[in-house]
Design a protein that fits this description.
Radius of gyration: 26 Å
Structural class: alpha+beta
Shape: elongated
Mean pLDDT: 76
Amino acid sequence: MHSDPSNDPADGTGGDSTATRRRRGLLGGAAATAAASALALAAAAPAAADTADRAAVPGEGPGAGMRHCESSDYKLIYEGRDAAAGTMYIHFSMARIMGDGPGQEPCLQDNMVSMHWVDEYGGDRVGDWARYDPDPPEPFVVEPGGVTDLTIRQPNPLNYPEEDCDPTPVAGVQVYLRFEGDPGTYGSTGGADVMCSEPGKAVPTAFVAPHEV
């Protein structure tokens, strides 16, 4: 309980004990530390994606004055897969679609790719959204008719108990280059895959990179 203000000592401590002042000092230090941590996290967090139509890229160097690649720029082509240590590596080519207007211009691939599995073309998502590439490549230019490589690192659903996984047939993947207002582009894997639909189980990771010849 606080002391009577009429008994405040001359040092302005309000009559609080040494232990009380110490606790206040510790609480103040903790608050300052928490505030500093929050500022550091805010500075380290990636900026929100522009949800409007992306404009030309400002600045100098590769990609200067060039528009950002969109999902509609690409057609997904399934290239096959390999496996190691209980993980599948599923490979797609992201082929630039030729056409009028923007299809005849190069674009800058600088967005992290989002993807998820779907139960059919235009259907529902199965399982979690893929995690982002933890070490994305530097932005690179994709010419009209060019190709970008997409690899999905997929933990094998067969490694999970059926009751934890809830295995569900999938037809392919849906890939997005923006966070909002993007219908995405579909890539079939032939309809022979089964993926976990339970949250947090067999979550894929999507990697995009310049095409390797």
